[in-house]
Design the sequence.
């Protein structure tokens, strides 16, 4: 298990972040190593979610943990249903130091596969729904910055505003 380099959008952009991913057909030792490394990388970066293209691999694999204690693996995820609406600030490990307001569904239901390629359904609301949809965008070659309403802001500026509101 290892920490992988997170690809960043940056001034010129890492082209791997803008490409759609391919389905995982089988769980090989390399794929299992990738999954383990993705969880290690997610936790090392204090993230909520990470998609395989963010570590340079164009496979439909996502890891999410919105609590720091509830790891979720989604292989070949597909959105089955969404409803409601929520607007909030999002950030991304591939766009460090930036945040922006994004509106997304408040509920999502997905079909995905586990590490044994067994299908399962996952439902999420609020932060989990946001994370699931944010990571799905990565698998299609899209980043949240394409959906930001208003300007992209520095994380520190938004945190300072929140501190003043309290």
Sequence:
């Amino acid at each position: 298990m290892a920490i992988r380099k997170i690809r960043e959008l940056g001034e010129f952009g890492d082209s791997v972040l803008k490409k759609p991913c391919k389905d995982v057909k089988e769980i090989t030792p390399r794929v299992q190593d990738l999954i383990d490394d993705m969880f290690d990388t997610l936790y090392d970066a204090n993230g909520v979610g990470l998609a395989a293209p963010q570590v340079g691999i164009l496979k439909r694999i996502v890891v999410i943990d919105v609590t720091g204690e509830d790891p979720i693996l989604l292989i070949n995820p597909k959105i089955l249903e969404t409803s409601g609406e929520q607007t909030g600030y999002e950030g991304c490990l591939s766009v460090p130091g930036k945040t922006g307001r994004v509106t997304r569904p408040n509920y999502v239901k997905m079909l995905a596969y586990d590490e044994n390629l067994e299908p399962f359904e996952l439902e999420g609301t609020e932060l989990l729904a946001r994370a699931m949809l944010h990571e799905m965008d990565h698998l299609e070659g899209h980043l949240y910055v394409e959906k930001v309403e208003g300007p992209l802001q520095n994380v520190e500026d938004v945190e300072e505003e929140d501190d003043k509101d309290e």
Observations:
- The chain has one domain: 15-165.
- Residues 15-165 form a domain with the Peptide Deformylase fold (CATH 3.90.45.10).
